[in-house]
Model the fold of this input.
Amino acid sequence: MEDQIQIAVIGSVAAGTSAAAKARRNSESARITIFEKDTDISYSACGLPYYVSDMITDRKLLTPRDVDFFKERYNIDVLTSHEVLQITPEEKHLKVQNQATGQTFQQPYELLVIATGASPIVPPIPGADAPNVFPIRTIKSADSLKLFIKQSKPARGAIVGSGFIGMEMAENLVRLGIQTVIVEKAAQVVPSLDADVAKWVEKHLIENGVELLLGDGLAALNTNESGVYQVITESGKMIPADFVIMAIGVKPNVALARSAGIAIGETGAIKVDKYLETSIKGIYAAGDCAESFSRITGRPVYYPQGSTANKMGRIVGQNMTGAREEFLGGLGTRIFKVFDLAVGQSGLTEREARGLGYEVAVAHNIKPNQQPYYPGGSEFLIKAVADRQTGNMLGAQVVGSHGVDKRLDVFATGISLGIKVKEWFQIDLGYAPPYSTTKDPVTYTGMILANELERGTHLITPDELERRRSGDRPLVIIDVRSPEEYAAGRVTGAIHIPLATLRQRVGELDPEADIVTYCNAGTSGNAAQNILLNNGFKSVYNISGGYKNWKMLKG
Ligand SMILES: Cc1cc2nc3c(=O)[nH]c(=O)nc-3n(C[C@H](O)[C@H](O)[C@H](O)COP(=O)(O)OP(=O)(O)OC[C@H]3O[C@@H](n4cnc5c(N)ncnc54)[C@H](O)[C@@H]3O)c2cc1C
Done:
């Protein structure tokens, strides 16, 4: 432990306060000062969408700790309205400005934490600086939007960007009775998801009255004397809007670090080693201003999340007070709620994994979150991605109304620990009818992927099925569900052979054809596939996620 060491921290939301508090827990003697240019500290930005809609009415609940708390509990000095203007590493001091008085002073440090966070991206387009354009980041930014809504009573709002903040804001604007349109440059919502998973979210948004304008970026904002009244898209569409929420992402605040000669990484965030030390010894960086690395690939990534910021802050606190704790990297695990859906992802999507050159196996698993006979549950989708070479799970995306958070976190844990696909079935998860099915959907997903990787019971995605239609080989698609289900809707071109009759009818099928089986979600389709494989058919595929998945994407 260092005695009487002088620690300075820049930024006092998640990462800065975590670093300072951990340093104090480890060392009574360190002198710790946090500089914060804002007046709010240690707040929960994550609660802001619900604060805007008055679901959370008490501002204090989002800012539970103030300067006095840090002094009394931790003997940490937090100087709010104090902006750090410059870091001089050679002399180990900061130039700080007291924003209340305008005066500047020098603050010496022996160890420094840069926790300057990130800022919302506001594109340099006409109208972006209008008073009714709201990036949501700080408590004050949410205060401004809240006040605007109260005073102006807008009928219609546009959200530019459909990441998790855009999604959460959409739900909360609708809660306020505001007609909401989302403008998104990508061809899907939530661009961090695979497009087939995003379809579930798009459907749910539309069901909840949100208009979607996808595949069309923001070009300009038309203004009059009151501010923006129209959003202009790249394709020239003119969308009326009484206000705009700018939610196209964040950029790390690195200017201070860069001007001090600290290296910036390839993601644009501050480069750190595995101990979260920057390129200058004794200066650490944590949270949204710092680069992370992927626990799967080892490559630098940028994960601006409160969960990561808190973890990094704690590790910095440890390492400033004598420990050598490694940051093990992240999976970008995230979850958000939009209306009645929970949407989570951890690790690589199929698109990312293919882009990185992995030989990918993919499974869509649509299952009830609990025993269907027990009231209150619903079906949800798991899409999991595995590496054919190593048998490792690379990532999972989970979307549904119940039980999503639990499955996501099991996936995150298993992926972190490098559990092989074939071992997922063996994870001893808890079961009772209100909570799960006897084989939990997570273990089921492991079974499906293990079958694909090891048994050769191949899955075919709806996209791949549609591509095969124009191939050279004959293609036979077999619906093995009941006559009623087949009559109510089927995959285009599918013939009907109910599972119970398949063994008697295998002679009708062309052994040279590609045969695709399906049921509603995959289980009976897999049973049919096994019958055909056991009868010597060589090229048999089961539709990943069954008819439900095909219908969501192609129906
Ligand atoms: C609406 C919303 C919802 C979110 N929901 C979630 C969620 O559900 N889950 C999740 O994991 N994450 C969520 N996040 C992200 C999460 O809030 C951030 O990842 C987290 O706040 C990052 O903390 P930080 O301390 O690194 O940076 P910041 O929160 O950006 O704090 C940095 C601080 O540094 C100060 N600062 C910067 N430069 C200086 C300077 N030169 N001198 C003095 N002070 C300075 C800034 O004023 C700021 O207060 C959400 C964010 C928003 C906006």
Notes: The chain has a mean pLDDT of 97.
